[in-house]
Design a protein that fits this description.
Length: about 120
């Protein structure tokens, strides 16, 4: 069950990010204007891409090793771990795609002329 939850968690990250349902500490952020939020998001996106890129590269290494070694659980079922570990780089890639989409939207909002 925990393996299925892990896969679900990794693949749902981009969906949560798209709908802004992820956890955010917004003591200052909620008081900003729409343009101010977009500027803040553009500035902090470097941290997002650094984290997500690292997760994708490291996750790929984990998945590759699990596939190569035929890594399985030590239970009587002998469940293969590679699908769970492959969900890490796939989920990170989906999150990167959503992050680029969000970054382009925020840049458009931040550079829009005020009327």
């Amino acid at each position: 069950m925990f393996l299925m939850f892990g896969i679900q968690y990794m693949l749902a990250g981009a969906y949560a990010y798209r709908d802004e349902t992820h956890v955010r500490v917004d003591i200052v952020y909620s008081r900003l204007s729409t343009r101010g939020r977009a500027i803040c998001d553009v500035i902090t996106s470097a941290f997002f891409f650094l984290f997500t890129g690292t997760m994708m590269v490291t996750g790929w290494r984990f998945a590759r090793d699990a596939i190569g070694l035929g890594e399985a659980s030590f239970t009587e079922w002998g469940i293969q771990y590679w699908p769970v570990k492959l969900a890490i780089p796939v989920g990170a890639a989906l999150l990167l795609v959503q992050g680029f989409s969000r970054l382009l939207r925020d840049i458009a909002i931040a550079t829009r002329r005020a009327d």
